[in-house]
Design goal:
By secondary structure, the chain is an alpha/beta fold. Helices cover about 40% and strands about 15% of the residues. The protein has helices spanning about 5-15, 25-35, 45-50, 60-75, 95-105, 120-130, 145-150, 160-175, 185-195, 215-220, 240-255, and strands at about 20-25, 40-45, 80-85, 110-115, 135-140, 180-185, 200-205, 210-215. α2 packs across α4 (about 60-75), α5 packs across α6 and α8 runs parallel beside α9. Bound molecules: 3-methyl-2-oxobutanoic acid.
Length: about 280
């Protein structure tokens, strides 16, 4: 097993190999994703929506991010592990930003942090990179700007907005970002940015020409069949599978069919503790 680092991701872009990345929020899914061979895992502040049930990511706290990052880090041994800096931790001062990034790495076990925004955040990015923490940028639809953007709306449309986004991407690379997420922008613009940047781009709703792709894992797994943004492909229907499994369980409990007698702990073959070995007290 060779650990994926920011150097691996750069080498993948240089070699034209696409990077596969997903979000994860807990140890069980993170272990499955790591074992499946994903290159990178993001503990995204999207957990505010899919785990905590908020309408957006704004209420997520640094303590929330630390809790989930620690859980994921315990299971991830191969993939590169990134954690989101949540809203409010890097918008006020560089000192706040460095302190929050240090906590995600030192206490959470993240190997890099991600933050949203363009040229305005160059001083913050430079300060975190100076503290030896790799920074992933995030441009286009930046969910922490939910109120400013007026909702989840495609970004970078039109010549002027596209030019500004490309300039922002170049500014992030210059500031020391090792990769940039491009969210919900036209595919042609994502292709242009990917072609101009030396560092990898990771797309979500940004077409096929990015250096890699990321999805929110709950979306890919179909855990909420009522929510399917245009760019999401459901690779499984775990929402339906979960509802069906729970309905079967409930029916068997009500019918007295589960647990079956053979599976009862009264069965001498089933032990709660392993049998004592020779020499055990
Ligand atoms: O929080 C998140 O899950 C993200 C990805 C969608 C890129 O930022």
């Amino acid at each position: 097993m060779k650990k994926v680092t920011i150097r691996t991701l750069q080498a993948m872009k240089d070699a034209g190999e696409r990077i596969g990345m997903l979000t994860a929020y807990d140890a069980t899914f993170a272990r499955l994703f790591d074992q499946a061979g994903l290159d990178a895992i993001l503990v995204g502040d999207s957990l505010g929506m899919v785990v905590q049930g908020h309408p957006h990511t704004l209420p997520v706290t640094l303590d929330d991010m630390l809790y989930h990052t620690r859980a994921v880090a315990r299971s991830v041994h191969r993939a590169h592990l990134v954690a989101d800096l949540p809203f409010g931790t890097y918008q006020v001062s560089r000192e706040d930003a460095v302190r929050a990034a240090v906590r995600l790495v030192a206490e959470g076990g993240a190997e890099a942090v991600k933050l949203e925004g363009g040229r305005d955040f160059v001083p913050v990015i430079e300060a975190i990179v100076r503290a030896s923490i790799p920074v992933m940028g995030h441009l286009g639809l930046t969910p922490q700007s939910f109120h400013k953007l007026g909702g989840y709306v495609v970004q970078g449309r039109g010549e002027e907005k596209a030019r500004r986004l490309l300039e922002d991407a170049l500014a992030l690379e210059e500031a020391g970002c090792y990769a940039v997420v491009l969210e919900s922008i036209p595919a042609e613009l994502a292709a242009q940015v990917t072609g101009r940047l030396r560092i990898p781009t990771i797309g979500i709703g940004a077409g096929p020409s990015c250096s890699g792709q990321i999805l929110v894992c709950y979306d890919l797994l179909g855990l909420d069949p009522s929510f399917t943004p245009r760019f999401v492909k459901r690779f499984a229907e775990l929402g339906q599978a979960t509802s069906a499994a729970v309905a079967r369980y409930l029916a068997e409990v009500r019918a007295g069919a589960f647990p079956a007698t053979a599976h009862s702990f009264a069965d001498p073959e089933i032990r709660l503790v392993p049998p004592a070995k020779d020499g055990d007290e």
